[in-house]
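Extended Data, panel c. Modelled sequence:
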Amino acid sequence: MSEDFIVSLLAAAITMGTPLLYAALGEVICERSGIINLGVEGMMLIGACVGFIAGNSFGSPWAGVAAAVVAGALLALIHAFLTVTLRANQVVSGLAVTLFGTGLSGYLGQDYVGQPAGAVFGKIALPVLSDIPVIGSILFKQDALVYISYFLVPLAAWYFYKTRSGLFLRAMGENPAAVDAAGINVFRLRYLYIIVGGALAGVAGAYLSLAYAPSWLENMTAGRGWIAVALVIFALWDPWRAMAGSYLFGGIDALGFNLQVLGLPVSGFILNMLPYIFTVLVLVLVLKRRGGRSAAPQALGLPYDREER
């Protein structure tokens, strides 16, 4: 393989991994608070649809991102109400949100199917940094949402591990009763982190319709929300690992695309399956390495009832 091919492949891995990164980072935040959110796929879809419509209507991709943030947050609010206030089963609630988001995005976007985006995020070569050999072409000739993701990951890691609020967040996922006993409102904070996770899933969807493939198509997320949920397990609920995993999965996706471009005698259906096959293999390997146990927060998926302390 030539150096140009490898550089273009790695640059594509960053681009293709960015929607996974936003979604996975939001899911890490949500699950660290003790709530499973299987509604990521639906939130990404509604973010992609609403982001596309708003971007076209206002002629600005940033308007699309803002609308996607609100749309993702509103769906997350539904999930928060069901799981935190009503203490409904978190898996069932997440699946319901995904089905609702899928149907709603299809309804709202039915008049926009196949239309190109009127406002998109273009590539921006950062001065000086983009001139660095190899690394510059891979990391610093991307779009604005990619650059923002570069800052979000260290910000999330700093918040998790270096702040008092981050300590409470991690503690909520392990022992919410202890956090409650310390005078912290567990319910309010869980609402907050679920909504933040949904907002980031909305941004992930907007990235697909405004940057990655500027258009709107029904079900255009193509299962990326589920990959993001699996990535959280692969990342052991850590922002830096989520970033590495997102780019790794993005690279697998990019590899399949590039192999098709090269005209290799491999079925396109097989190549399109690569990211999903890789997802299953990674989950099996991670769990096998840990003896069948995950590093999930102890209270993940368990509804908290103050009366049961």
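The longest strand covers residues 124-125. This feature is highlighted in the accompanying rendering.
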